[in-house]
Amino acid sequence: MATVTYKGASRIYPGTKKPAVDKLDLEITDGEFLVLVGPSGCGKSTSLRMLAGLEEVDEGSIFINDTDVSNLPPKSRDIAMVFQNYALYPHMTVFDNMAFALKLRRTPKNVIREKVAEAAKLLDLEDYLDRKPKALSGGQRQRVAMGRAIVRQPQVFLMDEPLSNLDAKLRVQTRSQIASLQKRLGVTTVYVTHDQVEAMTMGHRVAVMKDGLLQQVDTPRTLYDKPSNVFVAGFMGSPAMNIKTVPLGEDGAKFGDVIVPLSRERREIAAAGDFDKGKTEVTIGIRPEDCKLGTEADGGIAVEVDLVEELGSDAYVYGHAVYSDGTERFVIRCDGRNMPRLGDVVHLVPEVGREHVFHAITGDRIE
Amino acid sequence: MSNRVEPVVLAKRARKRFSRPWASLTAIVIALLWTTPTFGLLLSSFRPEEEIKTTGWWTFFSQPNFTIENYNEVLYGSGSSGRLAEAFINSLVITIPSVLFPIAFAALAAYALSWVEFKGRDWLFVGIFALQVVPLQMALVPLLSFFSQGVDVGGFTLMPAWDLEGEWKFVQVWFAHTAFGLPLSVFLLHNFMSELPGSVIESARVDGASHGAIFRKIVLPLITPALASLAIFQFLWVWNDLLVALVFASGSETSPLTARLADMAGSRGGEWQRLTAGAFVSIIIPVAVFLTLQRYFVRGLLAGGVKG
Questions:
Q1: Residue A114 and residue A118: Cα distance in Å, rounded?
Q2: How many beta-carbon contacts under 8 Å exist across A and B?
Q3: Hey, how many other C-beta atoms are within 10 angstroms of the C-beta on A152?
Q4: CATH number at residue B142
Q5: SS3 of A338, please?
Q6: Which residues span the membrane (chain B) (predicted)?
Q7: Quick one: B169 and B31 in the same domain?
Q8: Which of B203, B215, B216 to probe the A interface (max A CBs under 10 A)?
Q9: What is the homologous superfamily of the domain A4-235 according to CATH?
Q10: Are residues B228 and B140 in the same domain?
Q11: Which residues does chain B have within 8 Å of residue A158's beta carbon, measured at their own beta carbons?
């Protein structure tokens, strides 16, 4: 049972100037499942490894409960970690792998046996306790890695992309297993992934990082509905949100001849800034599901269809705007049984009030 | 000119030729030719003295005359040429610690050089391997004076003379072999160890293992093949060594098989028939070591160079 607090924690790798993690401030409450997500190289794994004690904290500090652990070795932090490549001990049986940490702490033998058996039951590994890791499948190895963390009963679980080596189906299955396991054990968990679907489905809260900087921390719902900047808006959701920077007109954003209306307050905030005279712009984001196919009369943006992705239940229409030179690309979700064909010109009608507005220069959200 | 052939085709043709029956036959013949002298020596060692000196070993087939007198004499006989049994024990006493010490130290050093972060680590590693360049012979005299006179700098004694006598001279040989064996051992084990997956070591650290525990429980079991092959190398080198033994373990109480064999040929040239038996006595242990560990030997040769 523990809380984790990053206080201005930075990691600057020797020989580089730009911090890999830049003054990270983050509070994780007791029992929370927090997901760190971001593109590769954004510093999410480094943040996790700093908490584990595998990377130094160059500036700031990290607390577990009220203890400053910034300079403690990993073994004094009472944390357990699941690695991307499982990192099982190849010369030990599954039982010994899970018992390793307990043996190091001189736990009595019968207690070890009890705890390992319990974890093995929980993870469905009872039949494999005598096997070596090489005789296990990928999914089983992953479960052993989880089991090794569970038997410790640590203050905090750390997971570094534990699912990325599994095949797609197993990944979806294990995803929900980990989430329910965490709920059952109630252990504070920090989970790193580059997959925004994993982040959305598993996390109580999700922290989005980019270039070592924390972009936004919030519940998946808020992150999706109210992304605080263009990066978060584009990162969360699949397919990605349609994000276009267009001229700001008298009444709203101008997509060619079509105008997406904006309130006066929003227009004022959007116009403030270092724009060239008469070239004020605004960034508009529309999720593929927040627009529908309409007619020209509905005030839709004309889009020529380049590609249709059929998913069964629905379909995604990829196309480029007819008004522009063809570089403005759009994605629209539509009914899978009633979809346009290649080369058709369709009209994209944004749902009123569901558009996201961002400042064209700073990228910040405008409410 | 018209028959230009692609190299690939040539290689294929060559491979085909070598796999033909007569190619195997040639290989067998060459192997036989190579083994014949050794075989002759083995036969000779079981023949009486006067026959060895007058007829060739192949006469054994026409007039088999079997004796173990030669072995008796070299193993238990009196005089400087006998008592190989004693030298045999000396060889073991020299060899076993001279294999264990360098490997133990090298494993510890290699662990520190690959998994403990400290300043100047890479330079230290390069420095250790650079010592490989110094030929052993150059170190003999300085090392000898180090043992007999200690280290004096400007009249100040940094290290007193060891002044080892009699059986204590074994310590000198162990020391010398350990020192000579370390650079290569450190290099080989370091290469092997640093190829171990980093996340396994990190995982052990998170699990609460200290460096000592990681070394004993994770690293050592995983580098067994490298340890075994290194042990064979070092064993063969020390067992067959004459130079280091002559310099640091002269004297009848400590001289190993190799020194005694050399003596036998030198001072009693007339009784060279004894060499036949002597040679086979000295071969026994290396052959046994090689045969029992050859599985690791082959695997170990690839290890360290290529990620395994």
A1: 6
A2: 60
A3: 24
A4: 1.10.3720.10
A5: coil
A6: 21-43, 87-111, 123-148, 168-189, 218-239, 275-293
A7: no
A8: B203
A9: P-loop containing nucleotide triphosphate hydrolases (3.40.50.300)
A10: yes
A11: 206
Q: Look up residue B18 and give its amino acid.
A: F
What is this model's ipTM? 0.84
Amino acid residing at B45? S
| CB-based contact, B222 to chain A, within 8 Å | yes
Which positions in chain B touch A148 (Cβ < 8 Å)? 203, 207
> B146 and B49, same structural domain?
no
The pLDDT value recorded for residue A239 is 87
Residue among B202, B207, B210 minimizing CB distance to A54: B202
**The whole model's pTM is what?**
0.80
Is the domain of B175 the same as that of B135?
Answer: yes
Nearest residue in A to B222, CA atom: A91
In terms of domains, do B287 and B207 share one? yes
- Tokens describing residue B155: 């009249």
pLDDT at B300: 44
Determine the distance in angstroms separating the CA of A89 from the nearest CA of chain B, rounded to an integer.
6
Q: Convert the pLDDT of each residue in B166-182 to its tens digit.
A: 778 888 899 999 999 99
Long-range contacts of B216-221 (CB under 8 A, 24+ apart): B217/A100, B218/A89, B219/B111, B219/B115, B219/B193, B220/B107, B221/A91
The answer to whether residues B261 and B133 belong to one domain is yes
Binary contact (A74, B206; C-beta < 8 A): yes
Average pLDDT on B64-84 reads 75
What kind and span of H or E run contains A147? helix A138-150
Rg of chain A, C-alpha, whole Å: 25
- The boundaries of the domain holding residue B55 are 19-67
Domain boundaries, chain A: 4-235, 242-359
Put simply, the answer to whether B203 touches A79 (Cβ < 8 Å) is no
For residue B219, which amino acid is it?
V
Question: Are both B61 and B179 inside the same structural domain?
Answer: no
Q: Report pLDDT digits (tens) over B99-122.
A: 999 999 999 999 999 999 889 999
| Residues A105/A108/A109/A111 CA torsion (nearest 10 deg) | -100
* Count of structural domains, chain B: 2
Residues facing residue A358 across a β-bridge:
A283, A365
CA distance A142 to A151: 15
Would you state the structure tokens that stand for residue A300, as one six-digit string? 């839709």
Does the distance separating the beta carbons of A74 and B217 come in below 8 Å? no
Nearest chain A residue to B221 by CA distance is: A91
The arrangement of secondary structure in A242-359, i.e. its CATH architecture, is Beta Barrel (2.40)
Residues B103 and B150 placed together within one structural domain of the fold: yes
pLDDT of A220: 94
Per DSSP, the three-state class of A17 is coil
Q: What integer pLDDT is reported at residue B305 of this predicted model?
A: 30
For the record, the structure tokens of A129 come out as 């306790």
Distance (Å, whole) CA A183 – CA A64: 20
Q: Higher confidence at residue A313 or residue A67?
A: A67
Chain A residues touching B117 at Cβ < 8 A: none
- On whether the CB atoms of residues B283 and B45 are closer than 8 A, the answer is no
Record the tokens describing residue B254, joined without a space: 């400590």
Mean pLDDT of A17-45: 93
Phi, psi (5° rounding) for residue A59? -135, 160
Average pLDDT of A27-36? 94
- Sequence-distant (6+) residues with CB within 8 A of A50 are A9, A11, A21, A56, A57, A62
Retrieve residue B169's tokens.
């001279």
User: Which range has the worst mean pLDDT, A73-77, B214-218, B283-287?
Assistant: B283-287
Q: Kindly determine whether residue B206 and residue A53, on different chains, have CB atoms separated by under 8 Å.
A: yes
Residue A286 pairs in a beta bridge with A242
Q: State how far Cα B145 lies from the chain centre.
A: 26
Question: Quick check: B203 contacting A, CB < 8 Å?
Answer: yes
State residue A132's pLDDT score. Answer: 87
